[in-house]
Design goal:
The chain has 230 residues and is an alpha/beta fold. The protein contains 7 helices and 9 strands.
Length: 230
């Protein structure tokens, strides 16, 4: 099953779980981090792209800040749900890959919230992200922490090597919910792979943070934040 098909299957259950407030990592870490940073940058921002927006919860919240935002995702069912549940005059959704779009403008901010680790051929896709960014524009990224996610999702075994890229398929879970019957895939890559990716695309690294929910029972941070400038 492709990653697109995996997310088509889980999209509705995932959306309802978030709307019910069960995803504390999203509510307490991911959402405030992205919204607060975009709010700080809003005076110099006109157009925003939410790359891999899923069912659009974050896209919608950022639209409230008052700038134009496009939510983009290859999961057609996710975008159907986004259009059904979230509406704002400065918000629109596109159910295509970035390669299939032909925007007549470039974006001042591109958000990649929990999406880059789900992408195959990340070098080609990330280059396309950079191509759609204005000079001086910002890329805001949150990924699962490469050093600690293998512990959290329990795939540290004899066949796992931290320094090698590997596709991981497991039953999807958040801090409070295990989505039985739904498996999703992501690509483990060492942190160095992301730094090399940024360097190859000639981006300036402005900020790196390891993110952890203060309410989290785990001793380690489960997410990483990067801010880059073209």
């Amino acid at each position: 099953m492709s990653i697109e098909e995996e997310w088509n299957r889980i999209a509705h259950a995932r959306l309802i779980d978030r709307l019910n407030g069960n995803d504390t990592s999203y509510n307490d870490v991911l959402l405030p981090k992205m919204c607060n940073r975009v709010s700080e940058l809003k005076d110099s921002t006109i157009n925003i792209l939410d790359f891999g927006c899923g069912t659009g919860e974050l896209t919608y919240e950022i639209s409230k800040i008052g700038k134009n935002i496009c939510g983009l995702d290859i999961s057609k069912h996710s975008i159907e749900l986004a259009r059904k549940y979230f509406e704002n005059e400065n918000l629109y959704f596109v159910d295509k890959s970035l390669f299939e779009t032909n925007f007549s403008f470039k974006f001042d901010i591109i958000i990649a919230n929990m999406s880059l680790m789900d992408i195959d051929n990340i070098e080609i896709n990330f280059s396309e992200i950079c191509r759609n960014l204005t000079v001086g524009g910002k890329i805001l990224i949150i990924i699962t922490h490469p050093a600690f996610w293998p512990i959290y999702w329990n795939y540290c075994d004899d066949n796992f090597s931290y320094i090698q890229e590997k596709k991981i398929t497991k039953t999807y879970k958040t801090s409070n919910t295990v989505f039985e019957g739904f498996k999703t895939s992501h690509y483990h890559r060492p942190i160095s792979a992301y730094f090399n990716l940024f360097k190859e695309n000639k981006l300036k690294l402005l900020d790196v943070q390891e993110l952890r929910n203060s309410k989290d029972k785990h001793w380690y941070p489960r997410f990483m934040y990067f801010e880059l400038e073209k």
